[in-house]
Every structure is written in C-alpha cells, then in structure tokens.
Amino acid sequence: MEGQLHAPVHSAIATGAVHAKGQQHPIKLYLVVWGWLFVLSTCSYLVDYFGLHGYLRWSLILLFMVLKAGLIVAVFMHMAWERLALAYAILLPPIAVLVFVSIMVLESEYTHFLRVLFFATPS
C-alpha cells in the first residue's frame, strides 16, 4: 500500500512533468542596467578628473556609489521583485546603521566642542 501512494510522484518526476518555474527577465533590462552602471562609474571618475574637493566631492562620490549599489541590489539581486518583508529585512539595517553613524558624528562634534571649551589652556 505504501508503494502505491508514492508511485504517482515518482512517475511524475521521472517523466519530467514536475519542474520549477523561474522568473525570466529580458536581456534588455540587464543591458540597460549595465549601461547605467557604466554611466555612473564614469561620473564617479569625472569627479576626480575635474578635481572637485571638499563636501561636493564626497557628496557626489557617495551619491554615485549609492545609486550603483541600488541598481545592483534591485536588479541583479532581484530585490525589485521580492516580497516587501524581504526587502525591508535587507534594506533597513544599512539605513539604521547610517542613522546611528550620523548620530555618533553629531555627538562627537559636541564632545569635541566641550573638550576644547573646558580643557583648553588660557593663553
């Protein structure tokens, strides 16, 4: 009796009737994303080529880096087609880290200001 219960499953697998269906994305999507990655990398290179300095330089480099990372995560890691809960599980921790790092930077500037104010030797 046990062999009869499993017989249809084995025959279906043996004939290839059971197969996993996967997502198929057009090659054009990957070529467009590759093109955008090339453009953003070129823009990142041009920041150094034109000799930009200071906050503008680092802001542009970080902007291009985040845009490239977003494209890679969305398309090549298939996050654009994933469930929202999975996207939150992957995207929220880096956002939380950025928020906490920003808070630490503000706190460090305040601490530095207080140390200079109270521990500086009068001249």
From TrEMBL:
Keyword Membrane: yes
Keyword Cytoplasm attached: no
Compartments where found: Cell membrane
Xref: InterPro entries: Cyt_c_oxidase_su4_prok (IPR005171)
Residues annotated as transmembrane: 29-52, 58-77, 84-106
Keywords tagged on the record: Cell membrane, Membrane, Transmembrane, Transmembrane helix
Topology versus the membrane: Multi-pass membrane protein
Pfam families in the record: COX4_pro (PF03626)
GO CC aspect terms: plasma membrane
Protein name stated in the entry: Cytochrome C oxidase subunit IV
Originating species: Bradyrhizobium zhanjiangense
